[in-house]
Amino acid sequence: MSPRRTLRWLPLHAAAALTVVICLFPVYWMVATAFKPSRDIQSYEPRLIPEEWTFEHFRTAVQADGFALFWRNSVLVTLGAVVLALVVALGAAYAVARLRWRGRRQFVLAVFIAQMAPWESLVIPIYIISRDTGMLDRLPTLTLVYFMITLPFTVVVLRGFIAGIPPELEEAAQVDGCTRVGAFRRIAFPLLAPGLMATSLFGFITAWNEFTYANFLIIKQQDSRTLPVWLSSFQTTFGTDWGATMAASTLFALPALVVFLALQRHVTSGLTAGGVKG
Amino acid sequence: MAASSPRRPPRGRPLALGPYLLIAPAVLGMLYLLLYPFGRALLISFQDFRLRELIRGDAEFVGLRNYEALLADPTFWEVVRRTFLFMAVNVVAIMVLATLVALMTERLGRAGRAVVLSSLVLVWAVPVVAATTVFQWLFHSEFGIVNATLTDLGFDSFEGYTWLADGRAAFAILVLLIVWQSVPFAAVTLYSALTTVPGELYESARLDGADALRIFRSVTFPLVRPIFMLVLSLEVIWTFKAFVQIWVMTRGGPGDATTILPVYAVQTALAHQRYDLGSAASMVTVLLMSGVLVLYFRQLFRQEGEHL
C-alpha cells in the first residue's frame, strides 16, 4: 500500500473502529457483568474480560418474584397491540393508497398529526379515563394505548408499501374474475410481506419498551406489571445486586436485539418506503 | 362466486361506502384514544382539579388560573429554559455525530460497512430502560468502569465519585445516554440518504478541483437536505419529549437539575396531585412542540405534497 493510501485509509478505519467500540461497549459491559461472579462485580478494579463465567445471576433473575408473569404480560400486551395495529392499519392504508374518496387528504393529515402526538402529555387524562371506566391496572388498557401509539406509523408505512405495488397487477386479476378483495389478497398481500414485517417490528419494539404508561396505569395490581417497569424497580428489590440487574436487562433486551438484527434489511427498506419520509 | 354477484359495483368506479368502512376503526381509535384524552387534558387545565376532584369528580372551572399560576412560577421558567438547553445540546451532538458516522460509513469497504451498520442497529434495538440501567452501572460510584478507568488514568478525584449526586454531572450523563441511543437511527437514515447521491456528481466536482469540505457543502448536503431536515425535526421532538431515561435514572434530580418539561408535568400531576397544573404544563409543552411541528409539516408538504 502506498503511503498516500495509508494516510487516507488509516484515519477512516480508526474512526470506524472507534464508532464500533463506543456503540458496543455498553452492551458488552451489560452482558459481561451478567456473567461475572459477584466478587468480580464488586471489585474496585473491574476486568474487561470475566475471569470466570457463571449463570448464577441469570438464575437469580429468572427466579425473582414474578419474572415469568411479567414476561408473559409483556408478550401478551405487545402481540395484542401489534396485531391490532396491523389489522386496522392495513384497511386504512389500502383505502388511502388505492381508493379515491372525499376526505382522504384530511384523513392522511390526521394520521400525520397523530404520529407526532405528545404521548407523555396524555398520561393524566388517560389515567383518569381508565379509572372512570374501571380499566385501571388492566393489561387490555396498555394494549389499547400501545395500539394507538403504533397505529399512525403503521398506516403511513403500509401506505408506502401498497402504493409501491402497481395497481395493474390487481386490475389484471380482477379482469380474470377476482373480486377487488380477492385480487388484493392474492396479488398484493404476498408482496406486502416486507412492509408488514418492518411495521410489526417497529410496533414490537415500541410496545416491548414502553415504560411510562405501564408505570402510571398499573399501580395497585402488581401482577399486571410489564418487564420495563419490573426492571426499573429491580434495584430496590435486590438492593445492589448489579449482576442480577444486568442479567435481567440482558434477558429483557434479547428478544428485541434478535428480532431487530434478523430483520434489519427490512427495517431500512421500511424506512425508505415511507416511515421517515412521511 | 363473488365475481358474479349483482352487488358488485361497475368496474373502475370505487365502492361508495368501502373506503369509509376501511378507515372507520382507525378513525374511532384516534377519536377515543387520542383526541378524547387530549380534550380531557385541555379541560382539566382550565379546572381546579386536585386529589379531591379526582375522587369526587366535581371539578370547578377556574378559567386561566392554572396557566397564570404556572407562568408566575420561577421554577417553571427554569424548567422551560432547561428543556431547550437539553434539547439543543442533544440535537446538535446527535446531528453532528450522525452526519460524521454516515459519511464515514459510506467511505468504508463492504465488510467495514456491514460491521458499523450492524453495531448501530444493535444499539438502536437496546430497550430504553435496559440502556438506562446499563448507564447507571457504567457510572456506578464504587464499582463502575468509568470511575475505575478515570482513576487508572490518574484522575484520582474520580475515586468513588457519585455522578448522579451532582446536577451537572447527572445532566451530562443523561445527554450522553440519549445521544448514544439516538445517533444510530439518525446515522442509518442519513447513510441511506447518502447512498442515493449519484457518484458522477462527486467525480465532476473533484475534476473541478473542489476539496472534501466544499464537495460536502455544495454537492452532498443539498441533495440529502430533505432527509437531514426530517431527521432533525424528529430528533427535536424526541429529545423534547425525553422522559423515560430521566425518570428511571434521576426522577428529575438531584434537586431539579434534570427536570425538563415532561418530567415536570408528571411530577406536578402525579407526585403533588396537582392534576390541573400538570395538565396546564402539558398543554404548554404541546404548544411549544407545535412550533416544531409546523416546521416539520412545511418540510413534509414541500417534499411529497403531491402524493397526499
From TrEMBL, chain A:
<keyword id="KW-0812">Transmembrane</keyword>
<dbReference type="InterPro" id="IPR035906">
    <property type="entry name" value="MetI-like_sf"/>
</dbReference>
<feature type="transmembrane region" description="Helical">
    <location>
        <begin position="75"/>
        <end position="95"/>
    </location>
</feature>
<keyword id="KW-1133">Transmembrane helix</keyword>
<feature type="transmembrane region" description="Helical">
    <location>
        <begin position="107"/>
        <end position="129"/>
    </location>
</feature>
<feature type="transmembrane region" description="Helical">
    <location>
        <begin position="242"/>
        <end position="263"/>
    </location>
</feature>
<dbReference type="GO" id="GO:0005886">
    <property type="term" value="C:plasma membrane"/>
</dbReference>
<keyword id="KW-0472">Membrane</keyword>
<keyword id="KW-0813">Transport</keyword>
<comment type="similarity">
    <text>Belongs to the binding-protein-dependent transport system permease family.</text>
</comment>
<feature type="transmembrane region" description="Helical">
    <location>
        <begin position="144"/>
        <end position="166"/>
    </location>
</feature>
<dbReference type="InterPro" id="IPR050901">
    <property type="entry name" value="BP-dep_ABC_trans_perm"/>
</dbReference>
<feature type="transmembrane region" description="Helical">
    <location>
        <begin position="12"/>
        <end position="31"/>
    </location>
</feature>
<feature type="domain" description="ABC transmembrane type-1">
    <location>
        <begin position="71"/>
        <end position="263"/>
    </location>
</feature>
<dbReference type="Pfam" id="PF00528">
    <property type="entry name" value="BPD_transp_1"/>
</dbReference>
<feature type="transmembrane region" description="Helical">
    <location>
        <begin position="187"/>
        <end position="208"/>
    </location>
</feature>
<dbReference type="InterPro" id="IPR000515">
    <property type="entry name" value="MetI-like"/>
</dbReference>
<keyword id="KW-1003">Cell membrane</keyword>
<dbReference type="GO" id="GO:0055085">
    <property type="term" value="P:transmembrane transport"/>
</dbReference>
<protein>
    <submittedName>
        <fullName>Sugar ABC transporter permease</fullName>
    </submittedName>
</protein>
TrEMBL record, chain B:
<feature type="transmembrane region" description="Helical">
    <location>
        <begin position="215"/>
        <end position="240"/>
    </location>
</feature>
<keyword id="KW-0812">Transmembrane</keyword>
<dbReference type="InterPro" id="IPR035906">
    <property type="entry name" value="MetI-like_sf"/>
</dbReference>
<feature type="domain" description="ABC transmembrane type-1">
    <location>
        <begin position="80"/>
        <end position="296"/>
    </location>
</feature>
<protein>
    <submittedName>
        <fullName>Sugar ABC transporter permease</fullName>
    </submittedName>
</protein>
<dbReference type="InterPro" id="IPR050809">
    <property type="entry name" value="UgpAE/MalFG_permease"/>
</dbReference>
<dbReference type="Pfam" id="PF00528">
    <property type="entry name" value="BPD_transp_1"/>
</dbReference>
<feature type="transmembrane region" description="Helical">
    <location>
        <begin position="84"/>
        <end position="103"/>
    </location>
</feature>
<feature type="transmembrane region" description="Helical">
    <location>
        <begin position="115"/>
        <end position="139"/>
    </location>
</feature>
<keyword id="KW-0472">Membrane</keyword>
<feature type="transmembrane region" description="Helical">
    <location>
        <begin position="277"/>
        <end position="297"/>
    </location>
</feature>
<dbReference type="InterPro" id="IPR000515">
    <property type="entry name" value="MetI-like"/>
</dbReference>
<dbReference type="GO" id="GO:0055085">
    <property type="term" value="P:transmembrane transport"/>
</dbReference>
<keyword id="KW-1003">Cell membrane</keyword>
<keyword id="KW-1133">Transmembrane helix</keyword>
<feature type="transmembrane region" description="Helical">
    <location>
        <begin position="169"/>
        <end position="194"/>
    </location>
</feature>
<comment type="similarity">
    <text>Belongs to the binding-protein-dependent transport system permease family.</text>
</comment>
<dbReference type="GO" id="GO:0005886">
    <property type="term" value="C:plasma membrane"/>
</dbReference>
<keyword id="KW-0813">Transport</keyword>
<feature type="transmembrane region" description="Helical">
    <location>
        <begin position="20"/>
        <end position="39"/>
    </location>
</feature>
